Amino acid sequence: MKTSRIEAAWGGQAECQGCSIRDLALFADLQASDFNLIHLPIDELSLDPGQAVYHAEDEGHAVFTLRSGLIKLVQYLPDGSQRIVRLLRPGDTLGLEILVGQTYEHSALVLRPALLCRIPQDVVNRLSVETPRLHSQLMKRWHQSVRQADEWLTELSTGNAKARVARLLLTLASTGQQLAGRDSTGRDAVPYCRPTRLEDSEAYCDLFSREDVGAMLGVTTETASRTIAEFRRQGVLTDVQLNRYRCDIPALRRIAGDI
Amino acid sequence: MKTSRIEAAWGGQAECQGCSIRDLALFADLQASDFNLIHLPIDELSLDPGQAVYHAEDEGHAVFTLRSGLIKLVQYLPDGSQRIVRLLRPGDTLGLEILVGQTYEHSALVLRPALLCRIPQDVVNRLSVETPRLHSQLMKRWHQSVRQADEWLTELSTGNAKARVARLLLTLASTGQQLAGRDSTGRDAVPYCRPTRLEDSEAYCDLFSREDVGAMLGVTTETASRTIAEFRRQGVLTDVQLNRYRCDIPALRRIAGDI
DNA sequence: CGTAACATTGACGTCATTCAAGCGGTGTGG
DNA sequence: CCACACCGCTTGAATGACGTCAATGTTACG
Hints:
Two copies of one chain form a homodimer. By secondary structure, chain A is α+β, with helices and mostly antiparallel strands.
């Protein structure tokens, strides 16, 4: 894990204000004067696949903004098996729950090389009482979490395995995943996969390990593998590179039951 | 639907402050002075099972606090089938999403006779900028929604049908459902089912229609029916009255896989 | 080159869905 | 008051889907 301090932000100005994804992030609505209220360092961290941002039950004193990469939120069941409850993409906020409780409620594990900003809880609290512009962003973030949780339930945990995999592919394709790369500030930049418009009849989409696909959909690894393999044989998915496919959107729609 | 206006609350004082469930509700932390900021009427409404508080996609300008009864939040799938994504109990808040968007995102349908307070969006907004005490409650409410959504996914949408039904019964029993009755302000009051402590080896629990049970767990009505019927034959559930059962908690735990 | 980790596939058993029928209660109209 | 229709719950039988266990193939990496 590499950590670098954004000194400028600590000073109160710059970096955060000039951040290339600020319009996506928690601080989107902040004004110049608001940044003077930041009195603690905002660290930037870079994590590789498999590493954890935090673990469930950990005591935490920071929320995170994901700048680039992909992260899974995992919840463990009493029997030890795991269920992925959400995916986080650039602009998303992690760990909001510590603003209400003390501990993180999921494990946040990196799926694709991730760059994050660590925002101390005190910074959020301070801004929270000083400026209403953060409130509205906080509300939006919470709202987004609830919406994603509900969608996850109705779209990815309902119906048969084929329909679930198809819906997963559709959501992955339509949200426009990042191709690879590290961040979007310029350095190491790699072109984004342009967000697929739903009108397109084909799109590209990166998949994860079959185990993760299973844990997202509430099916076994084998079922996930079988279903994806069948899609490939049927030509609904075409290999582009390892775990990257071209998707036949209309076919997926049909399978997903969206008619 | 019966509606009565709480004039006193409109005046800014009384009713809300003296509300018997205020410590549970959105206004829990408000202080006397804060109530002066309420410049719009807070209506109280009483709904019967089957009626809707609001429908998905409706434009909305109010949030609701549930005073008594039970409400389901339903999301419809493209194919017309429905999935219940959350249950709301006394003290819970409905419709928070209109503070961020314009429309409600679920249909809120009454399962057991319900009494609600309708809080105009403007009241929340006004209080929101004036007092931080509402913020923290709003955050708690959002947090609660996310938590329940995540639990719903990991506990009620994972594992086989027997385990799911068992977990549903456990959550219903441990949250202490209301027996019947209309509200908790005195009139028509009926004793609550004392919240079951997890140490108890048996508890009582009210169930809903098999169709609803199925829609909560992501299984068919028949599977829900068969599973419940089997639990009754095995003595895990014992009839007390129509759709009210005594539960053998340790047995349910075993079936749920909590070991 | 060998090993480990992951993906695929097969065979089999179990479980859930589907379609259909029967049962019991409730409400309505004759 | 009875007959009938209706609705929700239960149950059965057949089918299909998914989970399980195990073997094989594939890729990546030391």
